[in-house]
Amino acid sequence: MKNNKKHKITRRSFLKLVGAGSVAVAAASVGCSGPEGKTSSAKKQRGQMTYRINPKNNDKVSLLGFGMMRLPAIDGNAAGKKNDSPIDQKQVNRLVDHAIENGVNYFDTSPSYCKGESETSTGIALHRHPRESYFIATKLSNFSREKWSRAASMEMYRNSFKRLQVDYIDYYLLHGVGMGAGQNGVETAMEALNARYFDNGMLDFLLEERKAGRIRNLGFSYHGDIAVFDYLLSQHDKYKWDFVQIQLNYVDWLHAKEVNPRNTNAEYLYAELEKRNIPAVIMEPLLGGRLATLPDHVVETLKQRVPDSSVASWAFRYAGNFPNVLTVLSGMTYMEHLEENLDTYSPLVNLTKDDLEFLEYVAQLMLKYPTIPCNDCKYCMPCPYGIDIPAVFVHYNKCVNEGNVPSSAQDPEYARERKAFLVGYDRSVPRLRQANHCIGCNQCAPHCPQAIDIPSELHRIDGFVESLKQGTLI
Question: First and final CA of the chain: distance in angstroms?
Answer without folding.
Answer: 37
